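Priority: low. Protein: Polyisoprenoid-binding protein YceI. Input follows.
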Amino acid sequence: MPTPRHPTPCSPLPIATGLVLTLGVLTTPMASAEPHTYEIDPDHFSIGFLTEHIGYADTLGMFLEGRGEFVYDEQTQRLHSGRVEITADSAFTNHDDRDDHLRSDDFLDAGRYPTIVFEATGLETHSDRQGTLEGDLTLLGETHPVTLEVTLNKAATYPFGHEQHTLGLSARTTLQRSDWGMTYGVDNGLVGDEVELILELEAIRQ
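Result:
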C-alpha cells in the first residue's frame, strides 16, 4: 500500500482503520455569540489519503465511513470540543487485494482496531477563514498529537434539503505512519512512510 508525501503530523495512511477523527472548525464571526453543536453530514464527508508506492506514483484512497461533531462559537472563533471517528475497514483504493492488505495487521489491523479517532484539543485562528487545528489521533491503539490546517469555505443557510445553517470545511495534514507503529514497507521503500490526509466536509448546526 503506497504512502503520500506532504508532511505534517496528523493522521495516517491506512488510517482507514476506522479513523476516528475529531474536527474543530473556524468560521466567519456570525450571528450568535454562543457555542453550537455542529454535526458532520455523513453524505458530505470525504476522507482521503495519499501515499507513495515504490517511488513510482502515489496511491490515492478513501475511508468510506466516518462521522463526527464539534462544539464551536462562530463569533468568537472558539472551539470547545470536537471528535471524528473513521471506520478502519472502510478503507478503499479501488483494488480488492490491496484493500484487504490495507485492512490487515500490516497496516490498519481493522479487526483489532475498528475505529480511528481524532479528538480536537485546540484551534488557533489566523483569519476569518484559516486556522490550525490541534488534536490527538488514536490509531492501532496508540495516541499521538497531530496538526491540521483548516479552511472555512462557506458559512450559510443551506439552499435546499435540510435548509439549516451549515459550515463547509477543508482540512489537510501529513503524518508519519511509523509514529503509530505502522512500519510495513518503510525500510525497503515499498510504501512511503508519509501519509497525506485530505478531509472535506459539511457540518450542520444543530
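The radius of gyration is 17 Å. The longest helix spans residues 96-103.
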